[in-house]
Amino acid sequence: MRGVIMAGGRGTRLRPITYSIPKPLVPIAGKPCINYVLDSFHRAGVDSSIITTGYKFESLIKGVLENQIQKERTLFSVEMEPAGTAGSVKRAAEFMGDTFLVGSGDILSDFELKDLVAFHKKNGFKISLALTTVEDPSQLGIVETSNGRVVRFLEKPSKGETFSNLANAGIYVVEKEIMDYVPDDKPYDFAREFFPKLLEMGIPIGGLEVQGTWVDTGRPPDLIKANQVMTEKHGKVVKPHAGKMMIGEDVKFEGNVTLHGPTYIGARSKLMDGAKVTKSAIYNSSVIGVNAEVIDSVLMYDTAVGESSVIESSVIMQGTTVGKNCEIRKSVLPSGIKIEDNSRIYNVSLSPMISEEENTQY
Q: Which CATH code fits 234-346?
């Protein structure tokens, strides 16, 4: 079986993070978000995948090839004009077999999908959706099922419209022939257009709640949560620290360091005497200074936090330096900047300087 992974979106809700890095490449517990769905496809029997991409496609292709061991299993379909989720899959479908898997590369999904494939084939559906229960469905598509068949679907409901907490997880088993209903001449979306059209036509859509981990990584707080969830899932207890940890190679603890999990520390990072890290992800070659504290945050690679500074509920992009005695709370800092000593930054998302061409690039 083959697969299609949709990775052409701009990740607008995750800005300014996605100005620096395509959303599918945003790291979660040490590997790019897209790799989790690639791995789940592989476990389900997919031996090759096409990744559809558009926005910042060169960065995405390079990043996938650098981080995917089985490079021969991955091809790319580059959209010079946006085709929508269903439109992009239709373009790739001619290279698929009769039945194939479709997934989203910018949502954290670590599912076991063999049951979904078996369910789809047993019931003879033309398309089947992986479903997951969520607390807040307002940014998702919600589903109502009866005997394994989708009977109602609504994309991004308001509070008054919510009829279910069962959400579309963005992973589908598809019969190639059903893609004939997707038009060729305009962008076309699975959730907003294709599924309602199929329901209106009376074409059965399957829906099965699947087992595994799923986190919408659409906003910076979601990215922090995703790192915590996956570190908790894949980490281990490292004494004398509390909670689950993932600690890379050649990490140096220079003195008395306190870690509370779930916490990820990337390779070649250095934590100085008195440093405290709580429920955070600190990526490769970063430095946490003397008596500095990082809480519920994500620090990308090559970041530096100065002596006695506090970072809380924030995302700091790669190569940024935070001076001494700073406080940064509930903020997002772009890559490659320097924060002066004694700075106070609260509830701010700073964007990098980008050209209009970069902002609209496809």
A: 2.160.10.10
Q: In the chain, which residues fall in CATH 3.90.550.10?
A: 2-218
The pLDDT tens digits for 328-355 are: 999 999 888 999 999 999 998 776 544 3
Pairing type for strands 244-247 and 31-32 reads: unpaired
Q: Name, in order, each residue with C-beta under 8 angstroms of 351's C-beta and a sequence gap of 6 or more.
A: 15, 16, 19, 334
Residue type present at position 233: K
Query: Within 10 A of 336 (CB to CB), how many other CB atoms are there?
Result: 13
**Structure tokens, 352:** 């990098």
Q: Residues of CATH 2.160.10.10 domain(s) within the chain?
A: 234-346
- Are residues 292 and 278 in contact, defined by beta-carbon separation less than 8 angstroms? no
- pLDDT, tens digit (0-9, with 9 covering 90-100), for 108-161: 888 889 999 999 999 999 999 999 887 776 667 778 788 888 888 877 767 777
CATH architecture designation of domain 2-218 = Alpha-Beta Complex (3.90)
